[in-house]
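Long-time lurker, first post. I've been practising inverse folding by hand and with some scripts of my own, and I keep getting stuck on stretches where the structure tokens seem ambiguous. Below is the full token string for one chain I'm working on. Before anyone asks, I'm not after the true native sequence, just a reasonable design that respects the backbone. If someone could post their per-position residues I'd love to compare against what I wrote down in my notebook.
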């Protein structure tokens, strides 16, 4: 009986160890499970065109370096907030300039040794050091301009100033101040008011109030603006170049406008996360992501406009992209350091003075 008891105890202990082992596997860092114990690199990235991204950039890199790349998805704000937590796992992160500057100010990025990333020298000048020489380059350059439905708006829109036209009353959606592009709307209003926002914010807000009184919408998410456009609730929107093609699939009569005053540059950066133990591999990935091979593949699939000036595209291939020296030279660059310093007071004033009620 005593021997039987010992056997039962042994079985129970063995079973418990097995269960704990299985449980431990389920809680393990995902990069070590079923990956043949390969070295891993975790990339925090936008949740867009995953299949094409893997074919164009991820699989070739994995094969060349005999590593496993894990993609951690989310929008800018989700991934920026994750980056600030102690349990952040990412080694490399792709963020819009608005969030990347905040991350720099909070000390969340490693300083880059650009000698280890030679493809930086093949980028357009505005893409090399958009947020300072110590930090990551832009892997793509987009633009913030105007999209409108030419079937409804017969008089062509050519200027930021046209947004104040009476015939656009109740037909327009713009980003709210709290969005990535919201501050650009305020900069645009300052310019239309003939003011430098660093010297006279009052004129900028007075001009914005005119748009509000013209029954314009101010949406909190780009998806809300796009949905309003696709559903015919608005006929004009402030939008990003990379959004245009998807809108055109729904509304074939839409037109993209680079206003005569210039569109605003949207710069997406790639940076190495502070504290990564895989800095050398991270540098290899950044260099690969900036390569002519990857940049052209992404451009041909209409995923990203190329920041690498060695990429050559035909007019047909370049359609819908921000492409070429002349186009990029005409973009209006944004001082995100100044904007981040001013944003809190701008948001407070916007909420008091500018209507954000949805129509």
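-- Answer (accepted) --
I ran through it position by position. Result:
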């Amino acid at each position: 009986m005593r021997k039987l008891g010992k056997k039962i105890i042994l079985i129970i202990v063995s079973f418990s160890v097995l269960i704990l082992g299985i449980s431990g596997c389920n809680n393990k860092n995902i990069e070590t499970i079923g990956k043949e114990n390969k070295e891993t690199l975790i990339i925090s990235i936008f949740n867009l065109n995953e299949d094409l991204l893997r074919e164009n950039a991820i699989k070739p890199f994995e094969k060349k370096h005999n590593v496993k790349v894990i993609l951690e998805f989310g929008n800018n704000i989700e991934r920026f907030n994750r980056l600030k937590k102690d349990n952040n796992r990412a080694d490399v992160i792709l963020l819009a300039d608005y969030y990347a500057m905040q991350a720099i100010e909070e000390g969340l990025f490693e300083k880059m040794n650009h000698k280890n990333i030679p493809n930086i020298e093949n980028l357009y000048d505005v893409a090399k050091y958009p947020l300072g020489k110590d930090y990551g380059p832009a892997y793509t350059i987009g633009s913030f301009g105007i999209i409108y439905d030419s079937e409804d708006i017969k008089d062509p829109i050519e200027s930021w100033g046209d947004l104040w036209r009476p015939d656009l009353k109740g037909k327009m959606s713009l980003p709210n101040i709290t969005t990535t592009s919201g501050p650009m709307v305020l900069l645009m209003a300052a310019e239309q008011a003939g003011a430098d926002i660093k010297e006279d914010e009052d004129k900028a807000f007075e001009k914005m109030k005119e748009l509000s009184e013209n029954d314009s919408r101010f949406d909190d998410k780009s998806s809300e603006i796009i949905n309003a456009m696709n559903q015919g609730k608005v006929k004009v929107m402030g939008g990003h170049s990379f959004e245009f093609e998807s809108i055109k699939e729904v509304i074939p009569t839409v037109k993209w406008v680079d206003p005569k005053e210039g569109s605003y540059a949207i710069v997406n950066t790639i940076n190495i996360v502070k504290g990564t133990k895989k800095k050398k591999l991270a540098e290899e990935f950044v260099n690969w992501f900036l390569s002519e091979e990857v940049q052209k593949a992404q451009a041909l699939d209409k995923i990203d406009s190329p920041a690498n000036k060695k990429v050559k595209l035909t007019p047909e291939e370049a359609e819908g992209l921000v492409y070429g020296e002349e186009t990029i030279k005409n973009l209006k660059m944004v001082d995100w350091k100044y904007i981040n310093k001013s944003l809190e007071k701008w948001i407070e004033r916007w909420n008091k003075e500018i209507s954000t009620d949805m129509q």
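A couple of notes from the structure itself: The two ends are 80 Å apart (CA to CA). The beta strands are 39-45, 67-73, 92-96, 138-149, 172-175, 217-219, 236-240, 254-257, 264-272. Happy to go over any region you disagree with.
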